[in-house]
Amino acid sequence: MDAEKTSQETPIRKHRRRWLFRLIALTAIPAFLLILLELGLRLAGVGHPTAFTLKTQLNGQPVYVENNQFGRRFFPEALIRTPVPFAVATPKPEGTFRIVVLGGSAAQGIPDFTFGFGRYLEVLLRSRYPDIEFEIVNAGMVAINSHVVREIAKDCVALDPDLFVVYMGNNEVVGPFGAGTVFTPSSSDLWLIRAGLLAKTTRIGQVLDALLNTPSTDNAPEHWQGMSMFLEQQVREGAPALETVYERFRRNLSDIAATARSNGIACLVCTVGTNLQDSPPFASMHRPDITESEKAQWDHLFQLGIADESRGDIEGAVARYREAAGIDAQYADLRFRLGRCLAALESSETARSHFAAARDLDTLRFRADTRINEIIRSVSDVGRDGLYFVDVEQAFAAESVEGMPGDEYFYEHVHLNFAGNYFLARSILSEVHSVLADRGHDVGAAPSPLQQVDCDQYLAVTQWERFRAADAIHRGFLRKPPFTNQSGHTGRLRSFVARVNKLRLPDSEDVLRSLDAVYRAARDENPGDVWLLYNHARFLAEISNAYDQAEQELQLVLKALPNFPSAQSNMASVQLELGNHGKAEALCRSVLERQPHDVNTRATLANALLAQQRFAEAIEQYAEVLKSDPDDPTIHNHLGGTLIAMGRPAEALPHLRDAVRLDPGYFEAYYNLGLLLGGQRQFDDAIPCFRRAVELRPNSVAALFSLAQTLLLQGNVEEAVDHFEAAVKADPNDPIARGGLDAALEIIERASAGPE
Question: What is the CATH number assigned to the segment(s) 53-277+368-461?
Fold first, then answer.
């Protein structure tokens, strides 16, 4: 019976086996072919590595470094963002406590990551725990959100960190896959987003991505334009897409915490601080169901409120604004103005609620709103288990006047100034103390942190560094949309520029020597700090004109960080000043091969070409830079000078006028514009340019001489003599200035002698 049964089942089993083999063949063979194709593409050098970290050899030692190609998974080719350079030893040295900072531009430390909160935290930790070797890796990136941070966190596990510090939330709407992004499609399901990101880790996926021209969207700009790229990407309160953003943020943040937990890494999550009191909303929308008659009445009340406020009738303005809010309270700018008036009336609690509402209702969503911070708190409340929490938003509120953070901590809407970065680091410090204690370190009582002045000394925060940072914010943010759309922008910009100008260094050798001493003292105290070395090299090159010393220090920086684009670009500028024009060009082209959208390096390349009198090539490069930053006064000035050299003064004139318009403190632009106008015998227009140049640099022999010469040509001989004398006084050994003075005196002498 059993034999009979077996004989009956045999054909069935054979049939099943044949279908199993067929199924295996149908799946295994294509998989095998795909594997072969993937290997072939890798061997052929097609594509690029996608992990945030890359393992390599540096000075004979195994290290992990940043991957400059990482951003290709999230940004269109023309808009790729790159990480901060780092090089950390692997395996991690014994006794080292390694911290990875995760987040967007505020976490990175815009405008200068060498003074971000991670740097201040490093100083605070080293001073408090001298027996522990701290190492902080800045993994923050510009324009990213939690979708990107999630991937960075997974990749940074390879660094063997002890702690993640997560400070993110500002870019959830405008960053990759957000509801208001220009970088990627925003309508995909979360599983599809993650599947696409996974596919791009393969060379096959990268080839397909290139063929399909993704992840760019139809409205993606051709060049990086900063925050102005998002002007058409408004998202109103209550939009369904916004709810999707919040849910994805929760998922991504939870995944980051889970990644840390599963790999034995402590995770410190922070709420996000924003500028409430001094950053008006970027854009406002009325409630969607407002009628035409309601809107007309609202507009009338709103304008009356503005008029009352401008006259100083704050109580009247409040009454008008509140009437308008009764019709439509969703208009962000109305809520901000109401908050500002109530703050002036010392109604701080009510004012704070309106400022927060203005931020939350802002339809250009560059700031973490109330919901984002609530999600962070809820995710951080799931139990300790390696998860730590700092309520940074509340810490800023508690430290601010009337609980409303403003310009005392922020440059603009979210980016922290030096005081803000210090305060953020100090707020985090006590929780890092808990992490150290939980991990078995003998840390004693809670830390008493260094004061900011001591941290600034350690980091060599000089007046020049403060000027550079503020000037970068002015040039890169405040003078461009959407900031120009903010209410009261003109006055705010004027005030900010005044503060920037106060930080400008006087033309004094004593001042330069004193600043140089600050850098050298900090370096002597911390000889292994590559960022101190880098900042000192920049100071030597850009301010002290000590190009030989700058070259030596940049060589040391590049030995520690060989692929640091900014250091290479700075080295190119130094080589240019040393007369090594070909070397400067080669350095620039090397950087641009890897980062073709590096605007600063392209500008330096243009300068190198100009120095070699390759005018047409220089003009091409300057024009390319202006596509990305049409409001760069330096480029307009250089382009104008190049066009003059090519005998095209009519084309040069608008660029030089743009340069002085964009930067009223730009000496070289005023001087060049004066030369151009004077050369065209437009003396009445040239003289004010030279006067402004002399005002900016009273001891400039060239400016004094040019002003004097133009006055002389105009017939104003006596005033010309005064300026020739000033030029001779500035440099008694200048033969041209002396010759001009003698010629002017001779004219006066002839005139006084009368006709022969």
Answer: 3.40.50.1110
